[in-house]
Amino acid sequence: MAEAPEDVHTDECLSTYTHIYSQDLLKDQVAFITGGGSGIGFRITEVLMRHGCDTVIASRNLEKLTEAAKKLTSATGRHCLPLQMDVRQPDTISTAVDEMLKEFGRVDILINNAAGNFLCPAAALSFNAFKTVLEIDTMGTFNTSKVVYEKWFKDHGGSIVNISATLGYKGQALQVHAGSAKAANDAMTRHLAVEWGPSGVRVNTVAPGPISGTEGYRRLGGSHAESAGIFRTIPLQRAGNKTEMAHTVLFLASRAASYVTGATVVADGGAWLTSANDVERLLDLWSQEKRKDK
Ligand SMILES: CC/C=C\C/C=C\C/C=C\C/C=C\C/C=C\C/C=C\C=C\C(=O)SCCNC(=O)CCNC(=O)[C@H](O)C(C)(C)COP(=O)(O)OP(=O)(O)OC[C@H]1O[C@@H](n2cnc3c(N)ncnc32)[C@H](O)[C@@H]1OP(=O)(O)O
Ligand SMILES: NC(=O)C1=CN([C@@H]2O[C@H](COP(=O)(O)OP(=O)(O)OC[C@H]3O[C@@H](n4cnc5c(N)ncnc54)[C@H](OP(=O)(O)O)[C@@H]3O)[C@@H](O)[C@H]2O)C=CC1
């Protein structure tokens, strides 16, 4: 089995961290990470800061962000600014980006990580539920990219990394909303790479498979999948961890990927190549969980 780097299954900073890139890779740069207060976004923020970067973490829950920013600043010695923002509301994004530029005077990297998801069969999904996920995942990515582009990247260049998912690559039960939203984001990555390349903006995507120790993993039945042995069908035979995602994002965000744009880097242990996608079993598990909730 391929070896995984150290990780912890909470939103605490890593107790020890071994650099696998130069510690100065992002020296004196500034990164804006949506959903940076928890899960994969938290670890991306930590790893970027450990490579010399100051950060802004932005999402709806300011209390959670403030707590996260304290931990990140204390663990890395770099500055992390928490800002409240809803990716569905462009005016809140605009205010947050203005605050960031006032505080740091620049932005070099945008990570579009915020998303919403849950398991639900298409037939049980309300029209509003489908719309909500598209508004957060797809429109939220566009809204944030456009505001940052207009306010800074258009004149100074920059690097955008979107967080997608491989769950839609073969089609997956209970995931029509998220699979559709993330597929649109993969396409958006290519379109924006073409339009904004002449301004010195690179746009890329990391597409994770199941990543343990996050709210998304819990909501999507990650521990059920573990105990049911579903991850044995993944070529690397395990779920990924948050540090592995952060290292993939760091590569794309940094000058190490200076000639890479419009790319989607799949970081899923090969999961989508072999996904068994046992529809009846997933529907059955979903119904059992629903009965438990009642
Ligand atoms: C149980 C186990 C069964 C099977 C599993 C077995 C095996 C699985 C195998 C492998 C999977 C293993 C691991 C996972 C692998 C990959 C994961 C891939 C992608 C992961 C993506 C993410 O993780 S995204 C991040 C997850 N985090 C969050 O979602 C946090 C943020 N979320 C939210 O804010 C909310 O949940 C929200 C998205 C609903 C938005 O909130 P809000 O704006 O307040 O919206 P609401 O007003 O609450 O709702 C809007 C409409 O949506 C309907 N809704 C809400 N929740 C559900 C639900 N759970 N099911 C169905 N519908 C829902 C709600 O009713 C509203 O619609 P109306 O019509 O009623 O208005
Ligand atoms: N975990 C996994 O197995 C996988 C995850 N992914 C992707 O990785 C990314 C991170 O997911 P993960 O860490 O698991 O989940 P989390 O739930 O921990 O992260 C989601 C983040 O998005 C923020 N967010 C949600 N809605 C909004 C909004 N409207 N405006 C601003 N911020 C918002 C949340 O903060 P707040 O509540 O404060 O707004 C939260 O910090 C997502 O893009 C997800 O789709 C992809 C494949 C697999």
TrEMBL record:
Its main location: other. Signal peptide: none annotated. Gene3D superfamilies: NAD(P)-binding Rossmann-like Domain (3.40.50.720). The keyword Oxidoreductase applies. It comes from the Eukaryota. GO terms for molecular function: 2,4-dienoyl-CoA reductase (NADPH) activity. It is an enzyme of class 1 (oxidoreductase). GO terms for biological process: fatty acid catabolic process. It catalyses: a (2E,4E)-dienoyl-CoA + NADPH + H(+) = a 4,5-saturated-(3E)-enoyl-CoA + NADP(+); a (2E,4Z)-dienoyl-CoA + NADPH + H(+) = a 4,5-saturated-(3E)-enoyl-CoA + NADP(+); (2E,4Z,7Z,10Z,13Z,16Z,19Z)-docosaheptaenoyl-CoA + NADPH + H(+) = (3E,7Z,10Z,13Z,16Z,19Z)-docosahexaenoyl-CoA + NADP(+). It is found in: Peroxisome. Keywords: Fatty acid metabolism, Lipid metabolism, NADP, Oxidoreductase, Peroxisome. Transmembrane segments: none annotated. One of its GO terms (cellular component) is peroxisomal membrane. Belongs to the short-chain dehydrogenases/reductases (SDR) family. 2,4-dienoyl-CoA reductase subfamily. Monomer, dimer and oligomer. Pfam families: adh_short_C2 (PF13561). This is Peroxisomal 2,4-dienoyl-CoA reductase [(3E)-enoyl-CoA-producing]. Its EC number is 1.3.1.124.
